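Quick illustration, no need to memorize.
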Amino acid sequence: MSEEVAVIGGGISGVQAALDLAKAGVLVHLIERGPSLGGHMAQLDKTFPTNDCSACILSPKLVEAHRHPLIRVWTLTEAVDLQGSPPDLTLRVRVKPRFVREDRCVGCGECANKCPSSVKSEFELGLCRRKAIYIPFAQAVPLKYTIDPEHCLKINENKCGNCQKTCPADAVDFGMEEREEKLEVGAVIVSTGFDQFDPEKISPYHYGENPNVMTALEFERILSPSGPTGGHLVTNDGSTPRRLVFVQCVGSRDRNYCEHCSRFCCMASLKQAMIALEHEPSIEEVTVCYMDLRSYGKDFDRYRDHVMGKGIRLIRGRPSEVNLDPLGVRIEDVEGASIKDIEADMVVLAMAAIPSRGIGELADALNIELDDGGFIKTMASSDGPLATSRRGVFAAGCCTGPKDIPDSVCEASAAASLSLTLLPNRKPKTLKKPKVRDVSGEIPRTGVFVCRCGTNIASTIDVPAVVEAALKLEGVAYAEENLFTCSEAALDEMATRIRDEGINRVVIAACTPRTHEPIFKDTLEKAGINPYLLEMANIRDQCSWVHQGQPIEATRKAIDLVKSAVAKANQLEPLQTQTAEIIREAVVVGGGPAGLSAARDMSKQGFRVHLIESQNELGGRMDEIHTSSEFGIDRISATSLLEGLDVDISRNIKIESISGSVGDFNIVLNDGREIKAGAIILAPGADLPDCSDKEDRTITSLELDRMLREGTPLPKSVAFVQCVGVRNERFGCSRFCCKKMLEQAKTLVSMGMTVSVLHKDIMAFQKEGEALYRDVSEKGVRFYRIDGEPDISSENISFQSVTDGNITIPVEMVIESIGMIPSESNRDLSLQLKVPLSREGFFLEKHQKLAPVEFAVDGIFMAGCAQYPKDLFESMVQGSAAAAKAAGLLSMKVITTPGQICVVDEERCRGCGECESLCSYGAARLREISGKQVSHIEEKMCKGCGLCAVSCPSNAIEARGFTIEQIDAQIDALLGAER
């Protein structure tokens, strides 16, 4: 049996799957056919709905994967054959030559400077050129040059060879040849992503004839600070555009090309429209032409409203053509009932996401099936919802159909978990920490590394001036600037400088430590110094972003922030960590689809699982809400998911109290039993709105399901009303309701009934949703887009149609499609575990894009509708994703407590309990020592935030890394700064 896993595809899905497997102690082969990792996410400027810099949140993930001792990255590699059955599979791969020795290349770029051959850059989508020897982009991982054999003069004509002559590391090797390797693995995960529809196929849009007609991804590169224009929004002639038009669904939702919805385009275009206005406030007009605005995700409706507040114009309709002279679009405004010609300086086409190039050959090599759209076909089985037609092969991310980043990341983690279920007897590999030198007696030699962050920082702050000022500060031995300090090349250079310059303290002036501090600490440790000898100055969030348009003042403030950071760094001392054993058992709260999925995975992986369900039956609302055949999942009964597994199930049980911390939780149940566990997965589900005050002939979609199941006679005419109780000021879209309605409408119309649907937007974003939408429309279901709430009388329903004004139609029954609202149990669990809730009352994840099932509190994870409403398939996927995170924790023998924590001086403590009431993580608790109540801080739970320290009336608590002396030094530096 092999205990290794192959992941095919190096985008965000593949990288996330590899990291989750590696954290569970599994050796991973990460296979990427291109020269570097990153996928399409590496090409993005910002991500919605947080507007995070895409490179900033992605780069640490790429570097972590490439550096991880249990992840072997195979670039320029393709899978060609798979033999055997799990967990004894043999994957044959073909490795193409890079013609550059990775072990020698230092990424200096001398070779590219001397290369005479120039071709269009694939990464920049042809907007600029690259050399025949190149790296795809500045933050590429690995940052190693590659020779393009199609355009290299030496390879094709035996001429030139400048790169080989110039390379100072003797890394260029024209003798490298293609080779094949065999990998023995227990499972395979496919995460090959997507490609873009070719816009030239739609000739009326004239793509390729006018350079100012571009795809959305090309527009992303123009907005990006690392793109061909350095983040400056300009037209082809270099001028600033005054009018922008975004065209949605280009190739998508079109039976002539791609029938499916591409899911992420609506929100991506809104994001681009807003970012464009931020880049160039002089833009006079921004128009988005759309069919349905599918803001179906968490906080998407709120983001949409925020964008609309910027004055962006929405026109419902699909443009019939792009006019070239003058540039613009012709569109039928559906709501305005008129034909409009809208002039523009730039037209941005939101392209359909299509199956990735070569997916057919890969499917043949792996012997797996594709669906009718050419994506990898997944099907529910005993191996989980992401199983393909071949056992042991799972698929995640956009290779199974378009989806946005959080959904792709969830599927990646879920695929990792499902792979682990095939390796139940594995022996997790443990990693050794590098040795660090003792610098406690050394005079501070501080290194300052200032990040340009593309143009996120450098467009406002004079970065060279900050570096120059840093070099003059006491204790500073070295200072430099980087384009992206979080890139692998910059991190490697930092480690080298630390060693070569004898640096024993480090200041990084860049972005936020919330996302980047871990990767910088890791770099210090690899360079041989204690990771807590690091101080960060946040000159992006706290300076350049908030002082745009004030470059002089912002630069002065950035220098002050660096002065303060250096003053503190000079006072830093190495902090030590502790280890504690982990209880290798898990508690899953909630026996619905997500909880059952999590419990099944963890039990199959060999962990002891305790499932706590407050009701008498398992399954949650699985039978009530999800009656359709969604990937065949509904045919699997709730109990069969755990059949034959050693899961301790507690029914009709509630949690009385929870104490302890990561690796060692103590759960007390209301029947008096206590459970010890190392990890907790919260999946209590969601509630439905109270519809008790509805009209007599009005039923809910849930009641309709019951009537259909029981064969209750139904009237001849019905009307569905969508978004009841949701998509209002308090709650967003519930994701599942529109598709649910379409399935019910299809059933009713097949029974000969007249069916009408009153809606705001049809959120049929699922891969099969658009075909279902078209099918019921063609079967006679009438759709009315309405404004406001309908008026239901004894025989009719009246409403304001956005296209036809006031309409009244006779109906015998009204069906309210109710959404989901947060469960009351969310608040109870939030208080017990000190985990945060969103404004709506759902669980608040650690990071909306890249950590959708993790809390900020270690050892506790979330899944299912408690995080946000979702359908059955998504709930089960999230359950598996949470299981992967818990498995990564429980696979470790011990847990390392952080060094940067708070400590109590028991002699000073008077036991007032102020710290306990304030601690968000439940780390501070009173206990009795020698008959006296004193505070104790649990090291494993403490995050070192310092709230208890600043609130203690006795000054009995100190935050390590934030001592009074260090803070005084920062204040003195700021007060002494030149003004």
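Residues 628-632 have pLDDT under 50 and may be disordered.
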